[in-house]
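Standup notes, protein team

Yesterday: finished cleaning the Gossypium mustelinum set.
Today: Nicotinate phosphoribosyltransferase structure.
Blockers: none.

Input for Nicotinate phosphoribosyltransferase:
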Amino acid sequence: MEAKTNGPSVNAGRVMDGPTNPMVTPLLTDLYQFTMAYAYWKAGKHNDRAVFDLYFRKNPFGGEFTVFAGLEECIKLIANFKLTKEEISFICETLPGSCEEGFVKYLRNIDCSDVEVYAISEGTVVFPKVPLLRVEGPVAVVQLLETPVLNLVNFASLVATNAARHRLVAGKSKMLLEFGLRRAQGPDGAISASKYCYIGGFDATSNVAAGRLFGIPLRGTHSHAFVSSFMSPDEILERSLHRSDGSSTCEDFVSLVQSWLSKIQWAKALGNTVGETNQSELAAFTSYALAFPNNFLALVDTYDVTRSGVPNFCAVALALNDLGYKSVGIRLDSGDLAYLSGEARKIFQIIEKEFGLPGFGKTSITASNDLNEETLDALNKQGHEVDCYGIGTYLVTCYAQAALGCVFKLVEINNQPRIKLSEDVSKVSIPCKKRCYRLYGREGYSLVDIMTGENEPCPKVGERILCRHPFNESKRAYVVPQRVEELLKCYWPGKSGKVREELPALKDIRDHCIKQLEQMRPDHIRRLNPTPYKVSVSAKLYDFIHFLWLNEAPVGELQ
């Protein structure tokens, strides 16, 4: 299944398809956005040109990186931002006091044609304080975008980051499957999690709806209920199976399986460790193999993994092999995963040698059962033979952290820079319209992100530039970049006439995310005590921040 292409398409006169979730409308916002819009209109300020930055203050999960996601849905919202007659009536009924007819007329004409959106590419590794989106436009309109845009970015970036962290712990060679649908926070939480886990590095999902919507590869076989629903092989009515090449037919596949089970039980190399297996389990495996001979993967822990599940799987797999089919593998959903995967691997390797079946020893082993980052790390330390992980609850619910905490702050209005002050320095905003760059060193790793004023010259390769911490005057360093990347690109130009960046296909976003992680220095993305990544401002912007800070902060008086 191919990942679908995102981006603009002509549909019923639209410039672009609407958001995936039909509930994402202009009403998906906080009431105070509309009360402010009314107050702006009453004051005659509603068309003042404003610039807002969307950013976060701290990386999630105790780490030092975040994966930016949710941009496509934001652009789809902006492209289709229009209030219906019914929605306007509801707003007017809801606002305190009476709504003037002039404001109603204003709401009828609101859209985002005069809004500009500049953003970092979706799937990029990002850091605190650096704007993920810069939204420019009439202040009342941009204010109405605040809540839905934050909603679309916060969870998306959190779950994409969670997925990327699981990928880093699992390693490049392991397959990761997202199994979180049944435990996710509602249908939208499930659909969003499937999409953004894929961006973060997962290979497939069990979520059929997400597979259809986004073209994410689907994976899944059967549950314990399927295994325990069988009582004996006598229940299997249709026993024939064609060879994979169609050249002949095995009329009694069940008997072929039984004959292989007998050979396994008598195999000296297994040391007579395989005795009587559960025949109802064998019937279930045989039935499933008859239904899906090219995709046979068995859940082997319903009764006993090593005494029944694995031998029964092997019997069915060897019978399929006789007919030219290659089995996929087994899944473990309980017990000591490190030990059981090792024991299963030993049996596979013995059978490969005993019966002369090249490659059988490498049969895939999938593990599930409430896995999380810590479990994967523990398995790595213990040693295991798992090839593939199915991860659900802890992944899609972001159990380790409830929210990312993105904010949407005014940084300029009518070309006048604005700053938000706080006794907590981490909550002081960085004023004015900015340009953002990533500077790379000789080894190809990114060294630092730097923000500059809009009209400052771009950092140049090979030229030394002073990078300063936004608020700590003693933290500063000269950097001589070997490569300079501008981070903010125009994804919605409004009436500006600027060239718009196309929204890439989902798989391209995923590939970009994986490449981004490879470009990070390993100590920035490690699990234990990661090194903080440097986010800086230019010397000129640093001076301006502190000038504006002193100018806006009231001077106290001691009596």
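Follow-up from PR in the comments: Residues 221-386 form a domain with the TIM Barrel fold (CATH 3.20.20).
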